[in-house]
């Protein structure tokens, strides 16, 4: 599983059981092919976006451009605000642009929310939300120009085939004072989202290795911003023949640490530091791993895995 554009914040691996780096890795033969396993993830990186800090505004504006490849899709959108210690939350305008028909299910508990959207969006949400039908704009600049007339823009994000979105209204302390769109933007704590289509998963059998030990490999490539982050990996192994002998190999940039939530005992092989969800403060130091697919296949071979069940 080699995700080249979206470094995940949360990866959920649903694997259906089946059947020394450098020179050793180069001799390993393992022909990666699509397999019947499912991997979904939540990420804070978007194709275009920005975040701004506007502490004195009485109304804050957030804009989402929803780009869908399907004629009709569904979107779960949750808007959250942290506890303000009894202070009155400021008003929020959420502007949604959808290029195709999207059925929106919205949750925004305790937030004075106003919603503006174009006709392709079908809204299903709780009562008490003020809604505005937007004019038939055709460009993103038209949407942004309209939004700027209502108040300062705090965040903008373009999402491709989103399935769920979590928008947090807390101010980003290190954000600039204005929102200027950037490609492949990491929205940080402001926004997390999950794509509608799971990422492709490949697997293969390692030639010459006996037994039934399987390897699951997750590789996270560097993002646009090298800041410390924790990747939560949730692993669910579902096997008709009982619990498998398995190894989990996690490779990423040095600033990535791992929080592992697994329903099965596994051998763990990671870069950076890792901890388990049941003991989140018990950090265990990993070690350098190869940063190529072939090198990671070599690691699986060194750990006596007979097959790579998911990559």
From TrEMBL:
<dbReference type="InterPro" id="IPR058899">
    <property type="entry name" value="TGFBR3/Endoglin-like_N"/>
</dbReference>
<feature type="signal peptide">
    <location>
        <begin position="1"/>
        <end position="25"/>
    </location>
</feature>
<feature type="domain" description="TGFBR3/Endoglin-like N-terminal">
    <location>
        <begin position="43"/>
        <end position="194"/>
    </location>
</feature>
<protein>
    <submittedName>
        <fullName>Endoglin</fullName>
    </submittedName>
</protein>
<keyword id="KW-0325">Glycoprotein</keyword>
<keyword id="KW-0732">Signal</keyword>
<dbReference type="Pfam" id="PF26060">
    <property type="entry name" value="TGFBR3_N"/>
</dbReference>
């Amino acid at each position: 599983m080699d995700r080249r554009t979206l470094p995940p914040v949360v990866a959920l691996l649903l694997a259906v059981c089946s059947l020394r780096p450098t020179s050793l890795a180069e001799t390993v033969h393992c022909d990666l092919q699509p397999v019947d396993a499912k991997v979904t993830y939540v990420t804070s990186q978007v194709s275009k976006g920005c975040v701004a800090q506007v502490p004195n505004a009485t109304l804050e504006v957030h804009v989402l451009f929803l780009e869908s490849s399907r004629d009709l899709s569904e979107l779960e959108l949750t808007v959250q605000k942290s506890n303000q210690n009894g202070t009155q939350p400021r008003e929020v305008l959420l502007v949604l642009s959808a290029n195709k028909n999207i059925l929106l299910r919205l949750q925004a508990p305790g937030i004075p929310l106003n919603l503006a959207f174009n006709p392709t969006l079908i809204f299903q949400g709780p009562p008490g939300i003020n809604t505005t039908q937007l004019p038939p704009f055709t460009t993103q600049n038209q949407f942004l120009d309209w939004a700027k007339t209502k108040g300062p823009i705090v965040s903008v994000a373009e999402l491709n085939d989103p399935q769920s979105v979590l928008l947090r209204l807390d101010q980003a302390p290190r954000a600039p004072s204005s929102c200027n769109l950037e490609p492949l933007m990491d929205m940080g704590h402001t926004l997390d989202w999950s794509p509608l289509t799971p990422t492709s998963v490949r697997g293969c059998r390692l030639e010459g290795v006996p037994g039934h030990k399987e390897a699951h490999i997750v590789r996270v490539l560097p993002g646009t911003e090298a800041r410390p982050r924790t990747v939560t990996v949730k692993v669910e192994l579902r096997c008709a023949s009982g619990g498998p002998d398995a190894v989990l190999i996690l490779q990423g940039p040095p600033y990535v640490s791992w929080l592992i939530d697994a329903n099965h005992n596994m051998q763990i092989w990671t870069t950076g530091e890792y901890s388990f969800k049941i003991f989140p403060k018990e950090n265990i130091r990993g070690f350098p791993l190869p940063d190529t697919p072939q090198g990671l296949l070599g690691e699986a071979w060194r750990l006596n895995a007979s097959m790579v069940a998911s990559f």
